[in-house]
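#lab-general

N.A. 3:47 PM
ok so I finally got the sequence cleaned up, no stray characters, all 510 residues accounted for. can someone with queue access submit it? mine expired

B.Y. 3:52 PM
send it over

N.A. 3:53 PM
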Amino acid sequence: MPSLPPQYDLLVVGAGINGAGIARDAAGRGLAVLVVEQGDIAAATSQWSTKLIHGGLRYLEQFEFRLVRESLAEREVVLRQAPHLVEPLAFVLPHEPHLRPAWMLRAGLFLYDHLGRRETLPASFGVDLERTQWGAGLKPGFSKGFVYSDAKVDDARLVVLNAIDARERGADIRVRTRLVSARRERGAAGPFWRAALALASAGPLEVTAKVLVNAAGPWVKRVRDAISDSPSREGVRHVKGSHIVVPRVHAGDHAYILQNADKRIVFVIPYQDRYTLIGTTDVPVDDFEQPAITRDEVDYLLQLANDYLARPLVPADIVWSYSGVRPLYDDGASDPSAITRDYVFKVDGGDDGGAAALSIYGGKITTYRKLAEHALAELAAFLPPLRPAWTESAVLPGGDLPRGGMPAFLAELARRYPALPAELLRGLARRHGTRALAILGDAAGPADLGEDFGNGLTAAEIDYLVREEWARAPDDVLWRRTKCGLGMPVAGRARVAAYVEGAVARLARA
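B.Y. 4:20 PM
back already:
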């Protein structure tokens, strides 16, 4: 393994959406950036979201107007920069008079339509659920509803593409690399960090950096305390959100947002063509290392879904579930659902305090790009001169689709690869955009892509994920870089595991 340069401008701890977004922005502004991630890219909170790019309609009830406004503006940016990963999605809100009166819903949706820029998505409107397709899948008796628009996203791939873009702009991305310790020192050029790293594939390593960014997600307080002389006063509220996946519950392309008597909401979202995603819960937890859904959470989600859906769901219908822990800033709220989802920065050091460190609490995947801009603004005084902000108008890797967007690109793929299944081409285009061409190459037929593992996953794609996207383990391929593990038999997943192991070994020998 080549040795690392001795001095970086920015050492970023954590390769979730916040860390990857900051690394991308900083590398594009000319900084020398190192990212260290103890596991895989997006392996914690960032892959376990509800997979939405949204303003946060329910945050209006908590008067989080700044967060909603910024989220709505960023929704438009992310739709432009990742059109292969992000697509508009209509949400149907059935009216329940005993929960929220119609005037309140209309007022909230009016604010939602006008708080931020709305360039591509339609405004909200009322619908008759009994006589239109908007009520598909609901129980009889729901007569009135409202439709508004947000977007859905492949969350883990959004993180990976930010990391790829950061690397292509000069950042050094190291997965399965743990920060062991970091201490402040002072040299002729000023204060800096000296950090010890533990690499899974090599021995210990020491690097230096002008500034440290603590984007460790659920581990943010642990990292901050480890690099400080005294424990931090700020607290983290670890809130678990769990989701279930069931066979498709309705034929429409729209999603539902369901209200509960406890004022919380649950989404019912078309997922991976054949399934429906239902979530999320809000449960405070102390153990955030290995979150898992509980029976109480399953019952909560199923009960609320069954209050609305025509076809009853039972636990046996669940084909997959997942849980993630959100590291929210402890603002003193007693209700987990009321804790702010806004991000909070804490800067330690700087000037006479030695080398600067920025710790990030909270945040939403929707606003990650703006968070990165704000982070660099906070740190500008401690860094070399920065080039101007640039990410608002720059597409992510694979997002340079032809005029006509994804339909035009799929038509182009069908013309270039007539012997390949349309479903396989669609899956590659959704995951990789125009970079699907790097996987397909000059393939004349399915055999040219190597072993077929099912669900649209081939050896050619796994080789690409290992070579270009840091995939090193089966889960990296099956659940983060792709979602091909969903519905794949155990034997198929075992074949993938064996192939990934071989691909990683071949890369190491190259």
